[in-house]
Specification:
Elements lengths: L4 E5 L3 H11 L4 E5 L2 H10 L5 E4 L8 H10 L8 E5 L4 H9 L4 E4 L4 H14 L8 H4 L4 H11 L4 H8 L3 H15 L4 H8 L4
Parallel strand pairs: 1-2, 1-3, 3-4, 4-5
Amino acid sequence: MNSARIMVVDDDIEMLKQVAILLENKYTVSLMKSAEQAMESLGKGELPDLILLDVYMPGTDGFSMIQMLKANERLSRIPVIFLTGMVETADEIKGLTLGGSDYIRKPFSREVLMIRISVQLAKTPPKHRISDEIFSKLTENERKVAVLLCEGYSGKETGEKLYFSYSYVKKVIASLKEKLDIGNTNELIRKLRGAE
């Protein structure tokens, strides 16, 4: 089975079942009946590699949910594909403008959905999976450095991406090691990624 994890958020139970059957042979799938349930799960669980998100749902709709995702540093990098019955061009433009990676109208072609998911997963860099417990202990700059280290960037590349000097990045890494009681950088990265 592919290790990629996909979260499907839709208030239509039949749609959740249909998508689960389609995806479960290739991906690890989690099903959420509402944006509220999805956000609660994202707050405490392991992050998915991609979210399939309905737009029209009672309570918090898909457009509001993606705004919450993009406003959260820990969740903002998860690609979101809207999978929705809203077929107006204005809705598609809104979804993409808010940060959606793709927009697929229902009823959808199974083959097209699978290809669009694989395309998004292929072009999305590995994201950090830092637990909330660790993330909450870090300063803003420590979080930024930790995220990039988890994504595979070297200390020097991290400095370039954040416009920090390399010497400052090294100080931040030293601070991370001290906070998490870790001896070397490779162990630190494993810890941040949730590896035992």
